[in-house]
Amino acid sequence: MPGSNAYVPFPMLSCCLLMTIFVALVRCKHPKSRFVANLIVLWSLIEFCGMWVLFILAIRFGIAPVVYMFLVAIMFSIATNLFFFVVFNKQVLNDVTFFHWVGYNKCTVRTITVVGIICNFKVYRLLYSNFFGAPRFNAEFRDPYKFFQPLSLASFINLCLVMLICCIACVFGIYYVAWGYQLLIECIEFLIIELLMIILYIVEHCQLKTDHAKAVWKGDAKQVDRMKVNAGFEDDLSEDDQDPDAYMVHEGPNKARKELKPKALKTIHTMEKVLAQLLVKKNAIEGGFENTVQEIEKLHERELMLRYRRRCMSFRLDRPDFR
After folding, report:
1. Res 25 pLDDT > 90
2. Contact of 36 with 129, CB cutoff 8 Å
3. DSSP label of 141
4. How many CB atoms neighbour CB 228 within 10 A?
5. Which of 82, 89, 133 is CA-nearest to residue 109?
6. Domain locations in the chain?
7. pTM of model > 0.70
8. Which H or E run includes 72?
9. How far apart are CA 6 and CA 300, in angstroms?
């Protein structure tokens, strides 16, 4: 609707509001569902459509700066989608645990991959968003950094080369277009959506760091293992204790540990100690003991009995006539 005073009032913001309410209801029913990640996924689809709508409207209005900036933003968006698609196939799928998980969720991964390369790479967040509490949206990783590191890099590139350019283009559109035209309405609401998306980026980044810290200090053994903090235990194994395939799997993380900064290594050692204490306590309880002290006393008593038995057997061998 390019005519004056013939516009639809804020259609994209209305869709974002409805999607936010929907995600909030899902979160209430499934508390483990990640609210921010799901919100970014759904809003990214609106962002993709809004970018093309603004580009077409800017062409019809003949505002050259807005047209060129949105064209550049769309090109960078396509390049970012291709970049993460390549990284996902070359690096993320090499994760042993994730590759095994993909075998049970091929349809979900293929759908996300197709939508991610056509529309927006942000939909890959569905893999860990736990949407509706469904297992197909709760991927398992042996080394989560293989996934989250390129995702963060792609998000940063998208922020600098796509979202900021779109914000500048919207400012130009607001400045050049008079009130009453659909292009002005779209520029206003798209600018608001992009600013809110940046805030969601920051909130999600803080949440992921908080989840990582909780996995360490609360001693959640499953999450700690997902964060690959038990990589150091393989350092204590000799090559004879490992089969060739297992050694090939663990060689990469161990090599990467040597290249970490001292602060990061200190954090990993602390997490390994926490995990070791949890495993010792868990084995003691599974063995029928109340604590590790009781288990040690029982093992010491058993060792003494075996020692006395060996002495008796050796005495019988030395004195076969003894009855």
Report:
1. yes
2. no
3. -
4. 20
5. 89
6. 11-218, 229-318
7. no
8. helix 64-90
9. 87
